[in-house]
Design goal:
With 550 residues, the protein is α+β, with helices and mostly antiparallel strands. It has 2 domains: 231 residues, Aminohydrolase, N-terminal nucleophile (Ntn) domain (Glutamine Phosphoribosylpyrophosphate, subunit 1, domain 1); 259 residues, 3-Layer(aba) Sandwich (Rossmann fold). Helix content is 37%, strand content 19%. β2 and β3 form a beta hairpin.
């Protein structure tokens, strides 16, 4: 997990340093700026070393002939290595032994004339900036679900891009940030100039046929199934999207779906275990995190878990996340680190959580502020990688509003699932990534969002939504069924609570006015208190290495 920043819209090197410094929390293992003087193009990188911890894997990575450069944020999973590592190492001179970033660099070089097709074979969570020096052509890419953030601003033939909005704003203060997900409108006469690289797309900046600089957005993965009203469980797709749901699957029974979903989840956990840095897990005691921890424990008997809890006036015996996390830790045999936070702690760090998560919504800020403390503790215990259960609620649409409004209509319920997954990159997923990286430089991995897991999950017939006999109004029935007999019933059939409810930050709903005020100060008025920079930046000028390339 890392931070990238660059473009050709900088007046001097100091602007690049300012932008890179503002996202220094995304990695301090290597902080490098490349300046290609001929094209006046910059590409820079803050590294959090996960795979291949050597300095030779620091980025940006440049090809042996210095014609191609890559700044990469994310991870490529085991299947990508199995498919391409040996083949590409025979053809190109690699300077690293295990770097997934260098493997991706030469993969993109190999497919530079057809990057759109090449994207379909990538397996990982990623954002990247790939620069063809000779052609003066930039390609920004993002994975199909949008696990990691990437933003850009293109204006008057000039572009600046960054892993976080604050990177663009710190380099170019004239770019105001109102809200990237368009949940509220900018002031009259203003417009949002900063855009997100959408999941499943590439953004190409290059000279067009008349010699002008153009910015083209092309979709390589269209994750928008079309619904068949005559058979709500049947949907169509493009070749690069979800697999076709076969009608006969409808008759295969609950045991089949439970078995097949579990099999794909187990494979996803195994594929994402690739790391040269220590790994831990979040354990809230909910069914999703408990299952992920259970599967990790089978692969790594020494796995450790973390839970965050905000102390409340309510009795400690309340069956909250801490209560269930203790039960799960004991049952699974994992060491549990309890991160206890006071309401005063939350209040004192509320503005910082908004700066970290780059959102004005209380539903996102309230978990983000708790995740800051969680990630600080994870970092202090020596971990760089943490697994979480994000994504399961979207696959199974296990939210109360879905239950109320979409349950009677199978088509509406299925469509809601797809919409929830499509919008993850605007809310929970990216908020968690930003908060965990800002707090502790901790990379979050989410096996439920593996391609095969999502694909099969959306093929589960609607009639298996909540058929748990005698269990009451329980959602995610297939998931719970898949681990029946291996996880205790108290954990397996625990009713769903939101993260905010489970760790007691839901009271921040009453603070929406304050949250809006802080957001405007930080991002619209660009009034960033120095302490929020100092916490992560340190002696920035001493860290950043600048390389001039002709």
């Amino acid at each position: 997990m890392c931070g990238i920043l660059g473009g050709n819209n900088f007046n001097d090197i100091q602007e690049v340093k300012n932008g890179l410094a503002s996202i220094m929390h995304r990695g301090t293992d290597g902080n490098i700026i490349f300046h290609f003087e001929k094209n006046d193009f910059y590409i820079s990188h803050n590294r959090l070393s996960i795979q291949d911890l050597s300095d030779s894997a620091n980025q940006p990575l440049i090809s042996e002939d210095e014609k191609f450069v890559l700044a990469f944020n994310g991870e490529m999973w085991k299947p990508f290595f199995r498919k391409f590592n040996s083949k590409l190492r025979k053809k190109y001179n690699f300077k690293t032994e295990r770097s997934d970033s260098e493997l991706l660099l030469y993969y993109l070089i190999e497919n530079r004339d057809n990057i759109l097709e090449a994207m379909k074979k990538l397996d990982g969570m990623f954002c990247f900036a790939f620069y063809d020096v000779e052609r003066n052509e930039l390609t920004l890419g993002r994975d199909f679900i949008g696990r990691l953030p990437l933003y850009y601003a293109f204006e008057n033939d000039k572009i600046v891009f960054s892993s976080e909005v604050k990177g663009i704003q710190s380099a170019k203060p004239e770019y105001k940030f109102y809200n990237i997900d368009r949940s509220r409108k900018p002031p009259k006469g203003q417009k949002e100039k900063i855009k997100a690289v959408e999941p499943g797309t590439i953004v190409t900046v290059s000279k067009n046929f008349i010699g002008a600089i153009s910015c083209e957005v092309t979709r390589w993965n269209d994750f928008k199934p079309e619904f068949n009203p005559e058979n709500p469980t049947l949907y169509t797709r493009s070749e690069t999207d979800l697999k076709l749901f076969e009608p006969e699957d409808e008759d295969r029974g609950i045991d089949y779906y439970a078995h097949e979903f579990r099999k794909r989840l187990e494979l996803a956990v195994d594929d994402e275990l690739i790391s040269d840095a220590p790994i831990c897990t979040i354990l809230s005691g909910g069914i999703d995190s408990t299952i992920i921890t259970y599967l990790l424990k089978k692969k790594n008997p020494d796995i450790e878990a973390f839970v965050v809890n905000v102390t409340s006036e309510r009795k400690q015996t309340l069956k909250d996340d801490l209560y269930y996390a203790r039960i799960a830790a004991k049952e699974l045999g994992v060491r549990l680190h309890e991160v206890n936070v006071s309401k005063d702690d939350i209040e004192n760090n509320l503005k910082e959580s908004i700066w970290a998560s780059e959102t004005h919504k209380w539903t996102q800020v309230s978990p983000a502020v708790a995740q800051l403390f969680l990630s600080w503790e994870i970092r202090d215990k020596g971990y760089k990688v943490v697994f979480g259960g994000e994504g399961a609620d979207e696959i199974f649409a296990s939210y109360g509003d879905v239950k109320r409004f979409c349950w009677p209509d199978p088509l509406a319920w299925h469509q809601k699932r797809v919409n929830l997954i499509n919008n993850l990159h605007k809310n929970n997923l990216i908020r968690t990534n930003k908060a965990m990286m800002y707090g502790g430089k901790v990379e979050l991995r989410t096996p439920f969002l593996n391609k095969d897991v999502i694909d099969f999950g959306l093929r589960i017939p609607t009639r298996y939504r909540d058929e748990a006999e005698g269990k009451g109004n329980i959602m995610k029935y297939v998931l719970r069924k898949a681990f029946e007999g291996e996880i205790s019933e108290e954990l397996l059939w625990r009713p769903k609570k939101t993260f905010q409810q489970g760790c007691h930050t839901d009271y921040l709903k009453k603070e929406q006015g304050t949250i809006d005020k802080y957001f405007n100060e930080l991002f619209v008025e660009n009034k960033v208190p120095q302490k929020y920079l100092d916490r992560n930046l340190g002696h920035v000028s001493a860290r950043i290495k600048v390389t001039q390339l002709t």
